[in-house]
Amino acid sequence: MPCAAIAALGWGAGLLTAPRADAQILTGSLGQLTGPSQPGWPTLVGGNVNNPSGVGPGAIMGESRRFRYAFTLNLSAYYDDNIFIRNSNKTGDWAFLVEPHFIVGWGDIFGRGGNYVRLEYVPGFTFFARNSDQNNVEHQVRLTSVYTFSKLSVSVGQSVQILHGADTDVGTRISRNIYQTTLGLSYALTGKTSVDLGLVYTLNSIQNQVDSDSIGGSLYVNYNPGGKWTFGLGGNVTLTRVDGPFSPDQLSEQINFRANYQATGKVSFNGSVGLEFRQFDGARNQIIDPVFEIGAVYQPFDGTTFTLRAGRRTQNSAILVGQNFTTTSIAVSARQRFLQRIFVTGSVAYEKSDYHSNFRGLTSGRTDDFVTFSLNADYNVREGLTVGAFYTHRENTGNSLSQPFVFSNNQYGVRATVSF
Fold it and tell me: 224 exposed, middle or buried (CB, 10 Å; 0-12, 13-18, 19+)?
């Protein structure tokens, strides 16, 4: 094991492992075509459940009491011209989504700046006009609790996702269950220095494919020199166990430098860059790869927002036994408000997934190239009611070895979000 990897181990068990694209599944609220960077809970679209104004989707109910709650209902009707993401013999169908979103808890469950216990539950009911055998019910549950003492903050979380949709790694519609348990500790050493550590366990169960689970820990030392910047240095260690005799277990170590800039005005930034050292239980030589996660938000004017996201990470394939794939991605989006009630959002994303064998002397060669474009328009009709329309195009060109997984896909439809 290289010196850098030993140094990473020396940090000890800690916070969360680096975010991974555990879910490549094309599921969730409309417009969310790729899985979450952070396994265990997706970014939900179609309504801001943290809206404290009481106006529009996600308005907070019961804000004046210690017990608080919110409820929104997302309704969508859309046409998908390739529901099985096939290269040929495409199947198109109309689909209808009913997605309630419940939040209940105690304490600061919306601002999440103080102590709180927060429970979210998002069931999703999808019905197809012609392919009724694809009708399904998804469940997403997350329980989070944070308690802060004078210098120590403790957080625990448990999330469950029961998903069904088209998966780009597998190349068709599948069911995927993701379970994740987290424990995090943050301790203020001085007014400018703090330590973050924690543990995370994730289980990925995939219908008729290769299951896996992982347990990891990390430790970071953070320094705030004053002002709006915070810097951190640390590392993490993750053991990934993959089912099957031809899928070796994997041990990875990372050492990362991260930075956060939180302005009160127009710009905010967070990023992490580092190196990952991955071993394969003696099946092949160690792989050393760069890893990074970058996010930035720019608000030049009131009502105008630009967002940038980029990352690079590795995960095991669910369909190709004994193979991993490394995904490098970048996405930009712009959101503009018109006449105080109309919101238009456009986004473009590119992902490149390179597959490689986890055994010495064997090669893979599959490379997927994804391009996604989406355009959304929403109108805030009145307090508690928003209606909108959307269009999303996604395609995978890939190389010659990716031909069974090459596809193009279009979705367009209407949606409404109601807050009670």
Answer: middle
